Structure to design on (194 residues):
């Protein structure tokens, strides 16, 4: 599987998860998946991708309701929008995560960051609403949709329009946290302690 397109999303810190889930149900949202992710970010030794606002990730998704897992290589281009996160994205599904990591290493990329995330995915009309939990960082909500107007509409519908947007990617948030705990943690996983 290869997918290419424009990612349009809003991310906010989540303060009241039960309230959001109640709003999702009342709005006709449907819980679709619970996913445990392992995210590995790669870059050149000089951090050329990071400096250009790009990202190169290998993600493994383990589905909570089955033994199925999927691994995907993703390239995220530079951001195109100031308020919502808009960027071109290319994803390629791979059958073996370790082979993908070896391939990127052979091309000169190095792993610079690794973190886990637990994602609860909801579908609401033509949008995805994803409730994400990251170790040490807490809960967030992302709304991804086909257009900026739809993302804003769903944000209002879910009574999240008072929540400020978070501009940083999860990778940036994790990197900042790890930098502040240098020498204590080199990755962010659910069993880690600060």
């Amino acid at each position: 599987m290869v997918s290419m397109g424009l990612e349009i999303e809003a991310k906010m810190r989540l303060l009241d998860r039960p309230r959001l889930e109640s709003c999702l149900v009342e709005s006709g949202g449907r819980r679709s998946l619970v996913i445990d992710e392992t995210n590995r970010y790669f870059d050149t030794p000089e951090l050329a991708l990071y400096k250009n606002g790009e990202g190169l990730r290998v993600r493994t998704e383990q589905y909570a309701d089955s033994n199925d897992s999927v691994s995907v290589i993703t390239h995220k281009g530079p951001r195109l929008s100031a308020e919502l996160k808009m960027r071109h994205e290319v994803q390629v599904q791979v059958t073996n995560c370790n082979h993908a990591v070896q391939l990127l290493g052979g091309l000169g990329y190095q792993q610079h960051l690794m973190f886990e995330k637990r994602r609860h995915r909801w579908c609401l009309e033509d949008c995805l609403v994803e409730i994400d939990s990251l170790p040490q960082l807490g809960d967030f909500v992302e709304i991804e949709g086909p257009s900026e107007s739809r993302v804003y509409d769903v944000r209002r519908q879910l009574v999240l329009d008072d929540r400020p947007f978070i501009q940083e990617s999860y990778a940036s948030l994790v990197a900042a946290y790890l930098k502040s705990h240098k020498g204590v943690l080199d990755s962010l996983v659910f069993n880690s302690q600060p």
